[in-house]
Amino acid sequence: MNFQLKIMVIAFGVALLLLLARLIRRGRIRPEYSLFWLIGLGGATAMVTLDRAVFALCRALGPDVNPFGLLSMGATLFLAATCLHLTMRVSLLKDQSCLLDQKAAHLEAALKDLQSRAGQPAP
Amino acid sequence: MSEPGMRSVLVIVPVFNEAAHLAQVLEPLRDEPWDVLVVDDGSSDESADLAEGLGFRVLRLPFNLGIGGAVQAGFQHAATRGYDVAVQYDGDGQHRVEHVGDLLAKMDEGFDVVIGSRFLARGGYTSTFPRTLGIKLFSWTCSRIVGTEITDCTSGFRALGRRAIEFCARYYPVDFPDMEALLLLSFHGCRIAEVSVDMNPRVSGRSSTNWVKSLYYPLSNVIAIYSALSKRDFVRSLGRRRTTA
Question: Which residues of chain B are within 8 Å of residue A109 when distances are taken between CB atoms?
């Protein structure tokens, strides 16, 4: 990778890091989930910065190993694992919000019943 | 509650942004002896207020859960209030009130679930060829798994008895409910039957026969079958525990 491209990728990584910090500060991302981004961002930036060392490491695994293919596969697996984890979290949250939604509706209906029995106006 | 001495029946009508046609859908239910529960699935229009203004009981979900979550809220209401029968009745005007009596009459024969089928009578219902083929294929698959002939596994017009209500109040599958719910109810030991019904063209909402739905429908049903089969042992054990108790 040439020097200009490397600088661009590192600048992009730093910008993303700053954006991440800002989103955490504003409460738009929970710190728990920022870990994924830090790991992903850190890994990607390290690979770009140390590309020669990473390529050499890949080649050391065997003469038939294609460093590009190996790195692409690693990145794809990381993305897939992250998506899977997030899907599991979203599924859990959906179950929980569904339960809360239904409970809120039943409680509101029960409150209305009580108020109508007591002769008070419904909220 | 419905008339004393008779079984209590709750008609559950899930609605989502149906204000334009809701009066037309609910009006025929007004003079019937059953209780009606309108479940407003987080509508952004006046559906809930309109139904309340017409004198119907309304359960207001704070935000949209989809048809499965809304219907389950209706079953929860039926379970806690001790209704004997709950009838699912679409808020888009497709279901005919005169067939509710047919579903209830069939339940008297000792069934736990009665489905209003569009395909039981030959030539009764017409849709696009791929859709009809899909429904028939999945109904055939469903019949083989359940061991009872089912011709319309995706019909949302159903009557459920006490045992099925209690099950659905807790374990109703909210994502792809129609087919998975049938399979789970069958695994739970519920007896399932069908009666022939005609359906109106929908008075509101969008048709589900666009090409995206054509892809979505078979995939969702395959996932629903897999999901139901994976829960089979658990659901059967619930049924056995209930029988023992």
Answer: 57-60, 77
